[in-house]
Design brief:
about 325 residues; alpha/beta; 6-stranded mixed sheet; 12 helices; disordered C terminus; binds adenosine monophosphate; binds manganese (II) ion
Length: about 325
């Protein structure tokens, strides 16, 4: 896709991503914002996202993000990145519905394509990788390169997961030419945790339970514990990867309470389970090796329901074991 061509004649352009924006979502949205500001200086370009974590504050455009979405005038082009439109923040939906043209760019295998124009590439490591491909390279500068790089490292676990392709590495190589301090960026946005975040991680690991003969693991944080440590969802990014890294585990589940009898569920797996299918069954989605959904019921209900699907796939030696990988993960391994 040539992104600029999609914006021909547009004077009002909006960009959004998914709720609880992660590194790829924030990096892609702000990279596209920077690019369009540069190429279309006469146009109004607005980013609508839920307030992203502080660690992204260094990305140019962070302080221009509108989390309230109070605007009412229709947009000429409305971009939805790294997400299906159903997963955008509630307050942006009306404007999306009124837009003259909607464009959906994503790499989630669960996204069937939405909007007037869509570009969905499950083989891409990240949406940031697609944005890189869709822009004129002469517009790249240090800020834009850094925004794209953040997106890529967060979805590939710093070029570690199986979604990393030679192309991903080539793009990474091109981006670091622009001279930003990438080791610092990786440390401070991906690996570093605050003391409290580390305590919560410790607690999650300590209270984890293995099941299905030690091949799966689950851990859950309820609201009471989250309030005790004063942590929010952004403090929990990457915890599920620590569960997945445990020897012998084929599928890891991390859950935290979002409401009475409601949990946000993160799933990670190896080639034994296609978790995008499990998550899709419960109304979520994602990638084969990393997916998520929201579930209602008690902790035990949720785990029982999830394990039914996981077991089915493990027993049927499902296609996941031979299928191509497309994985994404949140920050901090
Ligand atoms: P997480 O749940 O944050 O661990 O996300 C794992 C991967 O699945 C990320 O690529 C998410 O964007 C994706 N994902 C999480 N929840 C959903 C959902 N409800 N619908 C579609 N994709 C999701
Ligand atoms: Mn992504």
């Amino acid at each position: 896709m040539n992104i600029l061509q999609e914006c021909q004649g547009a004077s009002r352009i909006a960009i959004t991503g998914h709720v609880r924006p992660d590194g790829d979502c924030v990096g892609s949205c702000l990279a596209l914002w920077q690019y369009l500001q540069k190429k279309l200086p006469q146009a109004l370009v607005q980013v609508y996202l839920e307030q992203p974590a502080e660690i992204y504050a260094r990305v140019k455009g962070y302080d221009r993000i509108d989390s309230r979405c109070g605007d009412t005038d229709p947009y000429d082009v409305f971009f939805v990145l790294d997400s299906v439109p159903e997963r955008m923040m509630e307050s942006a939906r009306k404007l999306y519905g009124q837009a003259r043209k909607t464009v959906n760019i994503d790499h989630h295998i669960s996204n069937q394509g939405a909007g007037d124009v869509f570009w969905i590439v499950p083989e891409a490591s990240s949406t940031a990788e697609l944005i890189y491909q869709g822009i004129d390279k002469e517009a790249l500068d240090q800020d834009l390169a850094m925004a794209l790089y953040i997106g890529i490292i967060h979805d590939t676990g710093v070029f570690q997961y199986s979604n990393t392709s030679p192309k991903t590495m080539e793009i990474g190589a091109d981006l670091i030419r622009y001279g930003f301090d990438f080791p610092k960026l990786i440390l401070e946005t991906f690996y570093q945790r605050t003391y409290v975040q580390s305590q919560v991680l410790g607690r999650v690991l300590l209270e984890s339970i293995r099941f299905m003969e030690g091949s799966c693991i689950v851990s859950c944080l309820d609201r009471k514990i989250m309030d005790f440590y004063e942590v929010e969802h952004a403090d929990l990014d990457g915890i599920v990867n620590h569960l997945r890294n445990i020897e012998g585990i084929h599928c890891a589940i991390f859950m935290y309470q979002t409401d009475v009898l409601e949990y946000k569920v993160s799933l990670r797996s190896d080639e034994w389970v296609d978790v995008s299918r499990v998550a899709a069954f419960f109304g979520g989605g994602g990638h084969k090796r990393a997916a998520g959904c929201t579930m209602r019921g008690t902790f035990h209900d949720c785990v029982n329901n999830l394990s039914l699907h996981i077991k089915q796939q493990m027993e049927s030696g499902s296609a996941a074991r031979t299928g191509s990988d497309s994985e994404s993960n949140s920050r901090r391994e």
